[in-house]
Amino acid sequence: MSEGRWKLWHDAASLDDAAQAWTTLADRLQTTADRLVSESKNIIAEWEGESAQSYQEHRGRVVAELDAAHGIAARVSTGVQFIAASVRIAQGQLDQSWATVSQIPHSGSPSGAVRFEPRNDAETALVTAASDRAIEIRTRLDSELGSDRQTLIDATTQWQAISKTFAPIAQHGADPFKLPADTDSVGVITVGNKTYVNTGAGDDEVTIGEDPFSDGKLLTINGKSYVIPKGQEIIIRTGEGADHVNIPQGTQVNFTVLGGRGNDRIKTGAGNDRVLGGIGDDEIETGDGRDAVLAGIGRDYVDGQGGNDLLSGGAGNDTVYGLGGDDRILGGLGQDYLEGATGNDVIVAGAGNDIVSGGRDNDALYGGAGNDVSYAGAGTDSTYGGTGMDTSYQESGDRAGGDTETTVTVQLSDQARFIQVEGSSEFVARVEADLDMLRASPTGQQMLAEMQRAHDNSGFFGIGKEDLTIKEYPRNDNSFAHDGPLGDNEIRYSPRMDSISDGPPAVVLYHEMAHVYDYMTGNYDRTVYTGEDASDHGDEQGERVAAGLPVDHDHDPKTPERIDPDHRIELTENGMRREMGAPHREHY
């Protein structure tokens, strides 16, 4: 084996994989352009007017940019293939050079400098010639790679130009072309085996149920019902407004729901559903089935439930839970919280300082751009940090990619198994995912251990032990905790709350757990806060303690405020946020 300057320590196989990936992307871009041209012919054939002309211009731009992107991807693939070939050829030449001196006595490590000890002038000449040859090979390789590097730099510039062209649409919700005015009336059209529903502008209520007089479905829009024949695929476009679409669990119909502008709430059933949230802060929950969700632009909450789902948060600070099934989860642009839960999941965080949790089973977690924090969880997992300063909390058998700056080995906690969860099956699965994340978190483990200690040290002959039940709170505006009689502590948890100081729902749960810890230990401070932070005047000090904010710990206004010494920072919301890399909460 070649050593020292004769060994490149390359990974040409990974370059081959990268080249193939770019080739695949080029093919898909070409296929997408061809499909767009083919499938839009029927639209433009009979569409006239200002909107039609605007759409045709937009269509032409999209096709042109797809063709350009195809060419860029093909050039990148070719460039990477050239790099792999150049490296292999150079290594082969270095191996030949090394073979001429490998039998001469030498010392040093394979990856470091090699010191030869020639025994005669002939061996000295061989070492000199081989060393000069190695320098020549490496110099030529540097020149070749410099040319290939410039090809990749040029391709990157061109790719970024295309991205910039469509950024106003993809990231900020600009209309891609002049859209026709939305109608206020409801439209229901059946063509073949598909029924198209347009609910119109406004805040709409849409539900689906069984028609008692036929074997079809009963679609109700704002109180008016429409019978949909059996076997139809239903496409619902809600348009502008804060719309609510509710398809009950178990409904065996394939739906496509287009949310449009507005803060929509969409819940689908057991079919293979497709949901596009559009622009706005949407809540999207799918049921069993192989579902595909693109939440769109805004601060969105997505819950995949059962089935092997494809879930994308899109642009904005999103919260995405895969839950049951082998899911593929994409965070997109923004600071996202992405949870795989059960199943062998693949999670790609995208750009932003993201928080990624694999949950149970064997997961692959990719951080992307930004300072990401990942919790591998149970199973045999792989984590890849991407660019930025990334941290991975994982078990000893997991694999961390070379681009993860900090790897922390953890042993999953088995503490606080006495915690009970009550509510719908969907709620139970959600809370169990949050608790699993805390079991993989060094900070979360401290909370669970303290609760276990308080539980074990409480009660009298098993009566009155400090317990905790987490119950479903149906509204999205709050979560709260209270200390019941004989240690029956309770948290009412709204699992969709993800807008408090840009933190994920899990930190809301952690805040309430901080209250329960104080109830268990008898340290909850009900004193009204009157300190330096005027925005929290009138609130109980216990709320600031749970948040991890300074309080008048000794009830002496003359002494400085500080974190409650009886409630260390790791057992507070801000302690959990600090580990996650989530924004610090400044006020209660």
TrEMBL record:
<feature type="region of interest" description="Disordered">
    <location>
        <begin position="547"/>
        <end position="567"/>
    </location>
</feature>
<feature type="compositionally biased region" description="Basic and acidic residues">
    <location>
        <begin position="551"/>
        <end position="567"/>
    </location>
</feature>
<feature type="domain" description="PPE">
    <location>
        <begin position="12"/>
        <end position="90"/>
    </location>
</feature>
<dbReference type="InterPro" id="IPR001343">
    <property type="entry name" value="Hemolysn_Ca-bd"/>
</dbReference>
<dbReference type="InterPro" id="IPR000030">
    <property type="entry name" value="PPE_dom"/>
</dbReference>
<dbReference type="InterPro" id="IPR050557">
    <property type="entry name" value="RTX_toxin/Mannuronan_C5-epim"/>
</dbReference>
<comment type="similarity">
    <text>Belongs to the mycobacterial PPE family.</text>
</comment>
<protein>
    <submittedName>
        <fullName>Hemolysin type calcium-binding protein</fullName>
    </submittedName>
</protein>
<dbReference type="GO" id="GO:0005509">
    <property type="term" value="F:calcium ion binding"/>
</dbReference>
<dbReference type="InterPro" id="IPR028208">
    <property type="entry name" value="Effector_pro_NleD-like"/>
</dbReference>
<dbReference type="Pfam" id="PF00353">
    <property type="entry name" value="HemolysinCabind"/>
</dbReference>
<dbReference type="GO" id="GO:0005576">
    <property type="term" value="C:extracellular region"/>
</dbReference>
<dbReference type="InterPro" id="IPR011049">
    <property type="entry name" value="Serralysin-like_metalloprot_C"/>
</dbReference>
<dbReference type="Pfam" id="PF14891">
    <property type="entry name" value="Peptidase_M91"/>
</dbReference>
<dbReference type="Pfam" id="PF00823">
    <property type="entry name" value="PPE"/>
</dbReference>
<keyword id="KW-0964">Secreted</keyword>
<dbReference type="InterPro" id="IPR038332">
    <property type="entry name" value="PPE_sf"/>
</dbReference>
